[in-house]
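May I ask you to review the protein record following this short note?
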Amino acid sequence: MKASDYIAETLAVRKVPAVFELIGGMITHLVDSIHVVGKTPIISMRHEQGAAFAAEASGRILGDIPGVAMATSGPGATNLLTGIGSCFFDSSPAVFITGQVNRHEQKGTRAVRQLGFQETDIAAMAAPITKKVFTVNDAEELPQILEDAFRIATTGRRGPVLIDIPMDVQRDQVTAPVRPLPASEPAGTLDPAFAQDALKAVFKSSKPLILAGGGLRSGLAIDSFRRFAKLANIPVVHSLMAIDVIASDDSLNAGMIGSYGNRWSNLALNDCDCLIVLGSRLDVRQTGSDTEGFKGTRPIFHVDVEPGEINNRVVDCFATISDLNPAIDVLSSVFEGHGTQIAQQIAQWSRAIADLRAQWPDTKELNGPGINPNDFMHQLSAKFTGAGAYVVDVGQHQMWAAQSLDLSTQQRFLTSGGMGSMGFALPASIGAAVCLRGQPVVVVAGDGGFQCNIQELSTVSHLGLPIKMVVINNQSHGMVRQFQESYFHARYQSTVWGYDAPDFARVAAAYDIQSRTVEQPADLDQALDWFAADTGGPSLLQVMIDPAANAYPKLAFGRGMSSMEPHATPLEMEGT
């Protein structure tokens, strides 16, 4: 079998929902084979970065099937790198396939920069931000490489794998048959003594919390986590990457913590006297810079699959290394039958969290003119109860969405966390929409980020996908403008001065996408009715907000979790 045909058949066996690509010379054999075999849809994007983000969203939605993106050599391959890095930092399973120049055109050990046209050592470039890189020099290596790539991407801490294949190898022959889908590997389990110690610590506490991290999603542990939370009856705070692990209206949901977390959630985290951390890195945007103050004297029980993340920034935790699913099952077996007693023991604590939430509502953090972005997120949620996913870009709107969107049990929340890449949401929504098969997908983006991959409006329009795009337009790069306001005496170079944005409603119309702009709070309900009326195709709603609106609350850098702007000032400049 021709090697490119073998790859196409393997993608089908692996049930890959689509391959995202931008055509180029060095992947023509691959694209042609996938088309001729006809078992895996090809989604032609308008930029390779868009293809990478779409593949990332595909992998995150499906979990056990990695997203797949392809690009040609040289600029095609290098354009994938931001999306590859995003998969690496956010533990998103993906397989990236790049075409390379023919083996006889490669420079090898010659003292030249390049021999073949567009020859680029993408393997060396991608190595630091992938779980594994494979360079295929013999077509007969492909069966094992493909099996390894899919396994590595979807086991342990999930992430991206890159396979670089010279064009002449793609047209060589593979004599081995296509391998069937392998059986899943059994995961390790948690020492019950760890769970017993956690239970004893909870019984000694009066203010326990569970901190849920994004690893619960990437570790496919959502069902087991939700069961454990109900059995334990302990309030749950979550990180930015775990917005969708627990429904917004769940009585145990105590909100988002971190740099821009809900004020009541950060205050609760500051006061808690026993913390169970599941699948969270405890990075600086969750804990603030004062890690000693964050740890305090309370016991912290930390479960993570990545050894390097254990006792990394926050030290002296009771820690264990384990896949989350089997670990949480053991926790559930130990905590089962004790939930009623725990709920009675911490009833005052649960009421205190509810009182904090009533005292510091998210919609009262901003008091400026025009549309309140936190109010808007609640209104948007109410109109899109049937949306399959919210795909959110990077910036102030990301924080307003994370603070205030109301998600049901089945709805997903996708955003770029570790890479924090503007331009993520629009192409990622394409990957999500392909996997969600007809369910509406809501994009929330800012005017700055939307322009980073605005070309994918063409892909959305061409495919007629049910993607509902919200552009929060504050006519600036708002998050950095807020940073300049705090630390650079309101010198707004490149965020306001020297920056502008188009009328996105008119841009969408140029792509034959229905669009509308709303500027006043009184007009929001009617605009959202229009926006939500047709869920069968794409539309865009441009929401104009006050350019001076800031994302609050915000941890005052250098202080503890209870000190948040604008009521407290930072002690030092943020380092991240």
About this structure: The chain has a mean pLDDT of 96. The chain has three domains: 3-170, 192-360, 367-552.
